[in-house]
Design a protein that fits this description.
It contains 9 helices and no strands. By secondary structure, the chain is mainly α. The longest helix has 24 residues, at about 150-170. The chain is globular, with a radius of gyration of 17 Å.
Length: about 190
């Protein structure tokens, strides 16, 4: 999170159009709708269309959930998106990432402790974010483990969460109340200033 105040304030219930109000009634968590959705709700058509793609990447992808979350957390970290990181720490834990693995994501693909498969996924994520391209050696390593649809889902997962990170950072979407800022050291320095 690069801004300590939103550039685009989350929409209030009173400001919602009827279609978005209906949509929000199906997506709230414990009666609350996350700041990302309340911010994007200022553009209802964009929100609805983006949710279709986002739901594929998050819930209908051919990737195993743990590996998907590894990619998402690395993309959020490389894009310096504190909001994205904070939201996906809990999801990553639920999908099998340990706290030690989540912390190690910040150290990148060459950190000690990664399996070869995890290291290659992290390297592919870094290459896509920085170069918008997966190098030949990384692609060959991915092909040895993943099928065609999974390879495509890797690229689109990184693309989705790079796009989301850009929007979150630029709009100044603030981390929702009650969301864990783990590990705290990332939120105490330059990476995710709070």
């Amino acid at each position: 999170m690069r801004l300590d105040q939103p550039r685009i304030e989350p929409i209030t219930d009173a400001e919602l159009d009827d279609d978005t109000r209906d949509l929000f009634s199906t997506m709230g968590q414990n009666g609350r709708v996350l700041n990302i959705f309340r911010t994007l709700a200022w553009h209802p058509k964009l929100l609805k269309r983006w949710l279709v793609f986002g739901n594929h990447v998050l819930g209908k992808s051919t990737l195993p959930a743990r590996e998907r979350e590894l990619i998402i957390l690395r993309a959020g970290y490389v894009c310096a998106s504190g909001y994205e990181w904070a939201q996906h720490v809990a999801i990553g834990r639920r999908e099998g990432l340990s706290d030690a693995e989540i912390e190690r994501i910040a150290d990148g693909p060459n950190a000690d402790g990664w399996s070869t498969d995890d290291s290659i996924l992290l390297a592919a994520t870094d290459e896509l974010v920085s170069d918008k391209f997966i190098s030949g050696p990384t692609w060959e390593a991915l092909q040895a483990r993943w099928n065609r649809q999974q390879l495509m889902d890797i690229v689109f997962a990184v693309g989705q969460y790079t796009l989301v990170s850009m929007a979150l950072n630029t709009f100044g979407v603030q981390i929702d109340d009650g969301v864990d800022r783990f590990p705290p050291a990332l939120f105490a320095g330059d990476r995710f200033p709070s």
